[in-house]
Write a structure and sequence with these properties.
There is one protein chain. The protein is mainly alpha-helical. The protein has two domains: 90 residues, RNA polymerase sigma factor, region 2, helix turn helix motif (Rna Polymerase Sigma Factor, Chain: A, Orthogonal Bundle), CATH 1.10.1740.10; 77 residues, Winged helix-like DNA-binding domain superfamily/Winged helix DNA-binding domain (Arc Repressor Mutant, subunit A, Orthogonal Bundle), CATH 1.10.10. Helix content is 74%, strand content 0%. It contains nine helices and no strands. Helix 6 packs across helix 8 and helix 7 packs across helix 8. The N and C termini lie far apart (92 Å).
Length: 189
């Protein structure tokens, strides 16, 4: 029976000596920069890269002749960084939902946008809003006149929330630039 146990021991896979230290010294800095660019956080990037080295020790890649270890490290680091971004989005979405439950948005009345403007000033604002590209015009109207949140704007415009935010931002930026003289003439702030 002892010989069977010894035979089983000899046929069992032996631990592989993975050169993680060599990989860390060779690719560690560039991986950390890559992940930092994705996450925009040095601390989170360091955590992701540390998890990468633990993964390389636990489940080593096939690093034999002809394999591209750098590509494997980048793939694992990128996937981990995407997981962090996904978790961050879920967390931020939960916070936004809870904050909306606590303080519901009050829609702005359509005439509120023109309060304090002369008739000519209000006509100029209408003209400039009408001249915006259609997506920016719709996004600005939904956000600032109807008081709709970005999620609803994204659904109505059939785009992502980030694109909805960008359309509102770009539209307002353009209006501020084009109407800067009006605010001075009308003495509004």
């Amino acid at each position: 029976m002892e010989s069977a146990t010894l035979t089983e021991y000899r046929s069992a896979p032996q631990p592989i000596d993975v050169p993680v230290d060599d990989w860390a010294s060779r690719y560690g800095d560039e991986l950390e920069r890559h992940v930092t660019r994705m996450l925009r956080s040095v601390d989170e990037a360091r955590d992701v890269v540390q998890e990468l080295w633990v993964t390389a020790l636990r489940v080593p890649p096939d690093w034999g002749e002809g394999s591209n270890i750098r590509a494997w490290l980048y793939r694992v680091a990128t996937r981990r960084a995407l997981d962090v971004l996904s978790a961050r989005r879920r967390h931020d979405g939960a916070l936004e939902t809870r904050s909306r439950e606590l303080e519901p948005e009050r829609p702005v009345r359509p005439d509120a946008a023109f309060r304090g403007l002369s008739r000519e000033g209000a006509d100029l604002v209408r003209t400039r809003v009408a001249a915006l590209p259609s997506r920016q015009r719709d996004a600005v109207w939904l956000r600032w006149i109807e008081g709709v949140d970005y999620e609803t704007i994204a659904q109505r415009l059939d785009c992502s929330q980030d694109a909805a935010r960008a359309n509102v931002y770009q539209g307002l930026k353009r209006l501020r630039r084009e109407l800067a003289g009006l605010w001075k003439e009308e003495d509004l702030r």
